[in-house]
Design goal:
The protein has one domain (2-184). The two termini are 27 Å apart. It is 82% helix and 0% strand. It is built from 8 helices and no strands. The protein has 185 residues and is mainly alpha-helical.
Length: 185
Amino acid sequence: MEGFLAAFTLVFCAEMGDKTQLIVMAFTARYSWRPVMAAVLAATLANHGLAVALGVLLGGLLPETEMRIVGSIAFIVFGLLTLRNDEEDEEEVRQSRSPFWTVALTFFLGEMGDKTQLAVLTIAAEQGAWIPVLAGSTAAMMIADGLGIALGAKLRRHVSPETMKKVSAFVFILCGVAGLVSILA
């Protein structure tokens, strides 16, 4: 249960304001929400499944303190990467006929090396349990992206994507610094 809760909490927070959540909002403006959510589920299971497998493998190789240090540094990097522009992801939208495959491929590629995927890898390495981590991360992605779909139109009227990125980056950097401080204390 600990792996599920850790993955759920971290991935949910990480996905809020993330580029893939923004991509899902854009797709929902064009397509029905059903194929968009189905594609998000399929892409998340594939992407986070790879991250969990790699994380469990790495978790067996590194001691806990070193994994926590790597995880904390990764969060700082996630925050810094969040601040950079990722405009090329939205150009992939026009490449496929089926909304499902268009969304699934774009979402899968958007998550490759993304902070949520790396967070899942880190948690899987720390926890060593793949089923709870994959279930928690997948549930978090579905809820966060579901909220993104439901609230996307209203949110875009009041908060710019740039502001959402800055808040998300700040939270990640803060979590990484707090993690390093807790290790050193």
